[in-house]
Amino acid sequence: MNTLIDIKNLNLYYGTYHALKDVSLTIPEKAVTAFIGPSGCGKSTLLRTLNRMNDMIAGTKIDGRVEITGTDIYSNEVDVETLRKKVGMVFQQPNPFPKSIYDNIAYGPRLHGIRNKQKLDEIVEQSLRQAVLWEEVKDFLKRSAFSLSGGQQQRLCIARALAVNPDILLMDEATSALDPISTLKIEELVQELKDRYTIVMVTHNMHQAARVSDQTVFFLNGEVVEFSETEQLFSNPTDQRTEDYITGRFG
Amino acid sequence: MKQAEVRQEKTSISFKNKKSYILDRVMPILLFLCAAVSIVTTIGIVYTLMSETIGFFRKIPVFDFLFGTKWSPLIAPKSFGILPLLSGTMLITVIACVFAIPVGLACAIYLSEYAPTKVRKIVKPILEVLAGVPTIVYGYFALTFVTPMIRMIFPSTGVFNALSAGLVVGIMIIPMVSSLSEDAMQAVPKSLRNGAFALGATRFEVALKVVVPAAFSGIVSSSVLAFSRAIGETMIVAVAAGATPKLSFNPLESIQTMTGYIVQVSLGDTPHGSIEYGTIYAVGMTLFVITLLLNILALYVARRFREEY
Predict the structure, then answer these.
(1) CB contact under 8 A, B192 and A95
(2) Domain ABC transporter, which positions (chain A) (predicted)?
(3) Angle between helices A101-111 and A150-162 in degrees, nearest 10
């Protein structure tokens, strides 16, 4: 598998707090990579460095390199808006805009200059189909996004992220606020999407990582403890701490 | 033996508390009386206004009052058309709002979306101090500072003019617009902003296309509130806008507003009970109805455009 994201000696500080310690790892293209670890271990922080959402948090300092297809995304010539267009994100809580279902999906494309109604219709349908939501909502696209259930809202947010045609999709504990059935639907969706997108997901739920991901990264206290094929990591971990975590001794 | 005694004591716990019982009965009544004071006052004001206004309209036809184009109740030939006062009021209010709403909104967007927390914590209280400046001070500021500046640009401007008073009324209502709008914007959840940022929106696009629409009902009601505050503003216009009721939309001329007229008559020696004296109730009633309608409009707009989040 080709490497798409290459993180080299990344250190991140929130003020004086050292949140990521010398992280180096590679993320392959068109596969699902899961970040696991206990709360506060830095997994979400690392995820947010990939689309530079950490920039918004005052006092964040970074050194090291985060390369996507060879370009360091923290270098000066990188336009952060273009980066975020290419690296979409889905959050822990579904956060649809207080607009109609249609306008939620069309928001990103409109932002990036698509005005043509027919083109927008196409994008909306295609994105909703990809998020396996089309059949459920096609007859009331004009209805408020808040009329949907939590699981549907989260799939809407996935569709919204897909509508700007990203290469990478980041999912920050995207199912932790959902019921088991909605969670299952999203996991199935992730399986379908990985043929076309590189997916990086943070999850609290080890079993989810085991079910869904191809690679798993285990974090502890801001460090990468272990990084390997998911099967390998769960069946035959090399580090004692990984074994302790996946067998439930802590976390 | 001793143990048994202790047990007996335990079973006779008293659950009565006379003090809290009385307090619970008396406090609601006391608090209701406090609330009633403002309601009774409002009813009293409306009653006085109504009865005096009805008395006035027994002598002067409503039609002449509402559609007459000349206002000269004190000097013969007498005429009671309110349109000149209405146009003066509207002129001031429109100038104030055209100035204050964009500036106030820009201020709110800056404070809510751009300013670092430190800056916001300093600037917001300062802005709110502006709202506490006595309006008479604003009046003199208009007359002695703004008017001379306007006259440097337009030498034909009168000493009393609508532009100067309108601008300063605008300055007065900016904090109202910005503070209330900023509150509405702050109430927009951060997750919505993050959603837009993650799609590649710039800070300005997030402010304009996510935060402002989501806070729109709050912004509109703050604007309408500021509008009705400008309509009712008295001291600034009495000092700086002049006392010439005139059906004119030239901002460089002296005009008179409804509030300005009421001040003029209240302070003068117009005998109580006369038609001339009745005019201030009719004008006051008109003012009351306009602000009431505006507040209803604000409520309606706030509800109609509310984006749930």
Answers:
(1) yes
(2) 5-246
(3) 20
Residue B65 lies in a domain: no
Residues B234 and B168 grouped into a single domain:
yes
State the Cα torsion B132-B137-B142-B146 to the nearest 10°.
Answer: -80
From chain B, the residues in CB contact with A56 under 8 A are 194, 197
Nearest CA in chain A to B213: A98
The C-alpha atoms of residue B45 and residue B284 are separated, in whole angstroms, by: 11
A132-186, pLDDT tens digit by residue? 999 999 999 999 999 999 999 999 999 999 999 999 999 999 999 889 999 999 9
Nearest Cα neighbor of B114 from B39, B202, B191, B192 is: B202
The segments of chain A whose pLDDT lies below 50 read none
Domain that holds residue B286: 71-304
Chain B residues with CB under 8 Å of A82 CB are 200
Residues B43, B185 within the same domain: no
Q: Is A89 left (phi over 0), alpha (psi -120 to 50) or beta?
A: beta
This prediction's pTM: 0.82
CB atoms near residue A211 (< 10 Å):
15
Asked if residue B88 and residue B50 are part of one domain, the reply reads no
Q: Parallel, antiparallel, or unpaired: how do β-strands A32-36 and A198-202 relate?
A: parallel
Q: What's the Cα-to-Cα distance from A63 to each of A77, A86, A155, A200, B72, rounded to whole Å? A: 17, 22, 34, 21, 77
The letter for the amino acid at A155 is R
**C-alpha span between B290 and B282 (Å, rounded):** 12
Cis peptide bond upstream of A166, omega within 30: no
The label of the residue with tokens 């990591």 reads: A233
Instruction: Enumerate helices (H) and strands (E) in chain A, giving the number of each.
Output: 10, 10
Cα nearest neighbour of B307 on chain A: A98
Chain-chain contact of B307 with A111 (C-beta, under 8 angstroms): no
Decide: helix, strand or coil at residue A230. Answer: helix
Residue B82 CB-density burial (10 A; 0-12 exposed, 13-18 middle, 19+ buried): buried
H or E, element range at A58: none
Q: Are residues B94 and B9 in the same domain?
A: no
CB atoms A98 and B213 under 8 Å:
yes
- CATH match for A3-95+167-246 among 3.40.50.880, 3.20.20.70, 3.30.70.1400, 3.40.50.300: 3.40.50.300
CATH number at residue B242: 1.10.3720.10
* pLDDT at B1 > cutoff 60: no
B293-303 pLDDT, tens digit each: 998 888 888 78
Q: What is the ipTM of this complex?
A: 0.91
Are the C-beta atoms of A172 and A115 separated by less than 8 Å? no
Q: Strands B79-80, A3-14: parallel, antiparallel or unpaired by DSSP? A: unpaired
Residues B169 and B242 in one domain: yes
Max distance between CA atoms of chain B, in angstroms, equals 106
A164–B209 C-beta distance less than 8 A = no
pLDDT single digits (tens) B183-194 = 999 999 999 999
User: Are residues B221 and B160 both part of a single domain?
Assistant: yes
